[in-house]
Amino acid sequence: MNDRNYIIIGLVVFFALLTFPVWYNLGSASSAPEVVLTEKAKEAKICIEDADFMRREHMQILNNWRDKVVREDKRTYSGKDGKEYDVSLSNTCMDCHSNKADFCDKCHTYTAVDPYCWDCHTYPEVTK
Amino acid sequence: MENTRRKFLKLTGVSVLGLSSLSVMDVLDAKKAGAAADADPYAYPEKALTAQRWGMVVDTRKIDARTTKRIIDACHTAHNVPDFSDPNLPGFSPANARHTVKWIWDETYDHVFPEKADEFLADRLKKLPILTLCNQCANPPCVRVCPTRATFKREDGIVMMDFHRCIGCRFCMAACPYGSRSFNFRDPRPAIKKENKQYPTRMKGVVEKCNFCEERLAVGKQPACVEVSNGALVFGDLADPNSEVRKLLNTNYAIRRKQSLGTNPSVYYIV
Lengths: 128, 271
What we know:
The complex is a heterodimer of chains A (about 130) and B (about 270).
Chain A: H1 4-18, H2 20-24, H3 39-44, H4 51-72, E1 76-78, E2 84-86, H5 89-96, H6 100-110
Antiparallel strand pairs in A: 1-2
Chain B: H1 2-37, E1 42-43, E2 54-59, H2 65-78, E3 104-107, H3 109-112, H4 123-127, E4 130-133, H5 141-145, E5 151-153, E6 159-161, H6 171-175, E7 182-183, E8 207-208, H7 214-217, H8 224-227, E9 233-237, H9 244-251, E10 254-255, E11 267-270
Parallel strand pairs in B: 2-11
Antiparallel strand pairs in B: 2-9, 3-4, 5-6, 7-8, 10-11
């Protein structure tokens, strides 16, 4: 154990580097994003399901919607409020949530997910 | 000793019986749960036009160059079909002008019916622009070759594309004997004249083709081309002997494209 000092110094440096991302970002965590609802969405109060469910499951719902429409031709969805909705991202979802930048993109950017919906589907452009 | 063995066998028998009855209970339970889950939130659209096998009759006697253009424009506007040959659009460059994407287009008689291009063909047919579109074959070769099942045949006979699943391998383009399919070699969005917000565009790298306006059928409308054709295109159920298409086919001699290939097209031409 002649090299004990070197080994200990090496270990300390190694663990310091290993944990670098943790202590470097300590205390600087940005807060979770708050999505902005449009007036129309606020007025409706409930989406096709309740907000908590939508927050968790909207990706699965959109996946199902896609398959139901394209492959099974089932185009109406009865929501929790008993209302019937046209199964369409551009025409139904984006009709209420017409603020893509403040609604969709906010969380998607924060969580670094990049859904490819918008390669083909259109969204209302914000006119200012 | 014997006594305990007998006991053991009895116990085993009873417990096997008990355990197997659990699966019966499961089935019963599932039935109950199934009854509750029957409330499927998804449903077919109420106003939709339905058929057993959709088909179209193209009456070439009623078609001229102007009708043809109107029909093509109506279809391509409704479905956001890009036009790379229009120099006024931002997507234009002379090298890309050949990257045509088409759902419905016009061709000369000898191109549409190469087997029937006779030596002494009627003058009218020589010059006539004939509308061509996806034949919505009953035996579609494009569906057979698609490795991802992005192209599939619906129960009502429409050969559909699921653009989400298309990987752009272009097997279907090689398989289709009618050239009804186009590939997006580049992003189509800059080459779209006027975007129809109700219908999605495509992205680079997918194949597209005519879908018999299934999105319009779902809301109870006739296909876009039929609507503006002034009766030159007739759309209906080929399986229903009383439908308008079948009546037309009963009273007129009609031909189909490359019938010898066995694809069984659903688009008929009265020439």
